[in-house]
Specification:
single chain; 170 residues; Methane Monooxygenase Hydroxylase, Chain G, domain 1
Amino acid sequence: MAMQEADCDVIGRTAALLEEQATVYAALLDLSRRKQRVLTQGGLDELSRITRAEEALLWQAGRLEERRTALHGELSRHFNLDPGAVDLQSLPARLDGAERERCSEVLDHLRTVSSELEATNEVNTRLIQQALSYVNFSLQALARLGGGGATYAPGAALAGQARSLFDRRA
């Protein structure tokens, strides 16, 4: 009886952990969508707040992944399989009834959220790259204006070349 309870416990803990992971990734997706709005509308303070919140959630996701990795070994022992033979995709097929349904639902939700998060992050990456290109273009234009050729002092005397506002090595 104790073995069956322990077996059910590892499955229950795995399902609960997957639900926690789905919750964290859903929160990351929400932040990623908010970041997308900020990137298109501006707002450095809000972008900074979102980035700090993302960092905290990513740290939490890392801790959950460590726990999931530890549970992976328990699952392989539970099913008496080589650890390489147990993966999340095949887990529901190894379960019965309510456990199978619970794991299938949470894995479907996790896949959906992960896919949406990946797509949103790709768009955000392109937006950031476009913003950086614009900033670089602007800085180069300012550098050309500030350092381009001779200037004349009052009375039409040659004053020499103007200095750039920015260090071009940066």
